[in-house]
Amino acid sequence: MKMKRLTLICLWLVSVAALPCVGAESGASARDDAAWLREKGALVFHEAFERDETGNGLKGIGNGWESATADRVPQIKQADLDGGILKIASATKEAGHAAHIHHDAGFSDGGAVVRFKFPGLSKDESLQFGFVDRETKGIHAGHLCYGVLGQSGVTLIDHKTGVMNLEIRKRRQEHLDRKEKLPADLEALLKTKQINVPWKADTDWHELVLVTEGDEMRLSVDGAVVARHRSEGFAHPMKRWLSFLTPSTVWIDDVKVWKVQ
The whole model's pTM is what? Predict the structure, then answer.
């Protein structure tokens, strides 16, 4: 009887061990994407911002960075290099556009690792961080894909085959201009192009990692995958620019861009 009971207990333990852990990430979800970039990739670019800006113009940040909205309001400093930190303060109202700062990247699979902080200087601070290719036709301003960090959530979005696709953009805008509800097929399509997950912002420094691998995009904060999504636009063959876009204030430090493919 004791032997039979021991055998049953062993069988139960084996069966439990084989079950997946509820709520735990598995496979690629559990990966450390910063480590994946270091181990599998080649470093394309590293920026520590250890210098002073040369002015408020397009190329004032230096080292290949461009502030796409700077020349709209040359009298206002939107990018301040202070103590090795890029401090962005968007003149959104005056410029008619959120601050948009970018740098050459150049990869198919790969991504970027940055340190960022919401300094708490503005209400509803957010950061749109992602990739652009202005050499590809059919996409508004070359917007490909982004991770967007807000005060209460993270969004991953495929712009290339979603709202920035020129045909989709035109069709969508026609309905918006008429203040009409989007057609069911268009609304359903756009819903497949993004994912939103809860996330709570604070005013601490964090490590942000955004990668694309095939048609999957993943965003991690402090080594933990916060959001992942699959959409065909993520597989765009050339992410030419790394892009930061913010409507208010955000601080950026220690940017690394890695190419895996």
Answer: 0.87
